[in-house]
Amino acid sequence: MSGLRERLGRLRTESKEASKEQASPESAVQAEEDGLADGFRQIGVELQSNEQGQFLLRRVVYPLPYYHGRHELSDLISNAPYLHAVAVKQNNEQSEPIEVHKLLFLDTETTGLGVGTGNVPFMIGFGYYTEQAFVVEQTLIRHPGEEKAMLTYLLGHMKDKSHLVTYNGRTFDWPVLVNRFILNGWRRSGPEPGHLDFLHPSRALWRNTLPSCKLSMVEEARLGIHRGHDVPGSLAPALYFQYLSDGNPTHLHGVYTHNEQDVLTLASLAVHFGLLLSGTTSVDEQSELPEGEELFRTACWLEKHGATTPAEHLFALLGKMDELGDSTGWSLALAARYKKAGQYEQALPLWRRAAEKAEDSLLPKLDAHVELAMYYEHRNKQLLTALTFAEKALELGHRRARLISDAAKRKEEKEALLHRVARLRDKVSRERV
């Protein structure tokens, strides 16, 4: 930590000297008054002071209604209470009711990637709702001596908030901030804020259908947000150190924009999940229907969070997906759900469709054939049909065995199928006698 402070202090001194050399007479006069370079004023950054010192603050107001991507941010005002189910799951206790004005949307830009004490949040962006607008505020420190003032300002905004809305904030942003609070002399007292970390629902819905669940990927693919030229968050530390080195604030313009957009996207994601959980909108209302895997993941997520009506709507839609030419791995999971509920009439077409797909596959799954064999043996009592499916599963098993390297698994699978076929052949022969 001392090494980082020395580096920041040295760069601060160098940046001041460079700024004096490059400043125009007019900007030099202003710089003497408040120490703020013109490059900051160009994007609305101001000098902020409190009892702990100074830091920089940028404030951007988005009057409502305001669309960010597909979603109108004021829609969260009525749908925020539906996020309560997410908060309960994430905080392992009965969370406070969700009120939109008690949410703080938080994103940090830091000097590194870890959560250790040497990682400093040089910029903290946060957003919140007022009666008429969504407001984004961004704090920045020019040297370590401004950190306590910045953190004091953040705490002032947190005191009346119940939840932090983040993307991976539970495991990154918040632990980093906790370390900085401790290093600046604060000790924990009272309960921590609740969390609404949208990385987790994003993974639950999209981990198998998007190349990654990075925020930039999710916002473009599912929220309709296209940033165009954007400074990646991974470059933010290097740009900050470049600013400290030469004192030129324009290096940070892209970082400000990136952080601001991240905060807006958190609000748009909150609207998205709130609308899904409320049942007032559904993924099938999009212009292009998502593939079955995403529909299934979404339905399971809704069911897990108590939104049974919209979940059942999606499950019913999935049952008709063969009309749309979709027949993928989710169908077996959906069939298992129907089987558990005793709804075999819904499970049967899914098993049959999966069985047909398996027979055309190079590495076939045997589950559908085995399930059909069990159904016709134990419930429908059509032993010959059950034997047909069991023998087909054994045949597919031979094809599959050539591509499975796990010898123990191959042996176990083969023995189970041989036992089932032998038992069914015996039953069929005794039935014919």
Automatic annotation (TrEMBL):
Residues 1-33 are annotated as: Disordered. Residues 1-20 have a biased composition (Basic and acidic residues). It comes from the Bacteria. GO terms for molecular function: nucleic acid binding. Residues 104-272 form the YprB ribonuclease H-like domain. PANTHER family: EXONUCLEASE-LIKE PROTEIN, YPRB RIBONUCLEASE H-LIKE DOMAIN-CONTAINING PROTEIN. This is YprB ribonuclease H-like domain-containing protein. It comes from Cohnella abietis. The gene is yprB.
